[in-house]
Amino acid sequence: MTLAVISTCALALFLAAVTPGPAMFAVISTSISRGVGPALACGFGIALSDMVLVSVALAGLTVIAQTFGWLFLAIKYAGAGYLIFLGYRMWRAAATVEAEVASGERRWMRSLALGAAIGFGNPKAILFHASLMPLILDLESLDRFGIGTVLAVVFAVNVVTMGGYALLSAASSRWFRTTRAVRALNRVAGSAMIATGLAIAARS
């Protein structure tokens, strides 16, 4: 696999990842409402789920998305429901300028699971990758090293993109220091979470 092919693959994946969608809004909302750490964990979960979907696509097992459609559907609605719940909590949150105390590993794991649920909640991503990869890669000559390289690129692109959204959102949230600004920020973040959850639930 040449550097040109890897670069082309990375660019295509970056353009797909940077496009506004449920993953982006979930990371931004999490960063604003819960901090950059949970947002990075959410992005990490999205990256891991995308690696799995790409693996499935490369293996030519798109039929799994149909055979186990009920599982993808359950994960999708669970992730959507959790986002809506978080959005509701943000709307009801007290307008305080005090920093929220982190709850450690449990908080990170919840965010990681949320990111994975968002990623797995879009089984059509398998079809997207299955249609994209043959245009970029020579699948017949793709060996284990090549597959590992593709998965590494997928993971890196997702982490960098979602991490960028998380850091930028966290930086902008520091501008809100008054009670009125925090209330507005909570409601914007809550609305974004609810809208994202509804978008995931409504997506066919």
Describe it.
There is one protein chain. This protein is mostly helical. The chain is built from nine helices and no strands. It has helices spanning 3-18, 22-34, 36-58, 63-67, 69-92, 105-120, 124-136, 144-173, 179-202. Helix 1 packs parallel to helix 8 (144-173), helix 2 crosses helix 8 and helix 5 (69-92) packs antiparallel against helix 9. Mean pLDDT is 76; it is low at 96-102.
Secondary-structure topology with pairs:
Layout: H1 3-18, H2 22-34, H3 36-58, H4 63-67, H5 69-92, H6 105-120, H7 124-136, H8 144-173, H9 179-202
Helix segment tally? 9
Strand pairing plus helix content: what structural class? mainly alpha
DSSP helix fraction = over 70%
User: How much strand content do the residues show?
Assistant: under 5%
- Taken from the alpha-carbon principal axes, the silhouette is globular
- Characterize the largest beta sheet: strand count, sense, and whether it forms a barrel: none
Low-confidence stretches: 96-102
Arithmetic mean of pLDDT: 76
- Tell me the series of helices and strands, N- to C-terminal: HHHHHHHHH
Number of extended strands: 0
Distance between the termini: 35 Å
Radius of gyration of CA atoms, rounded to a whole number: 18 Å
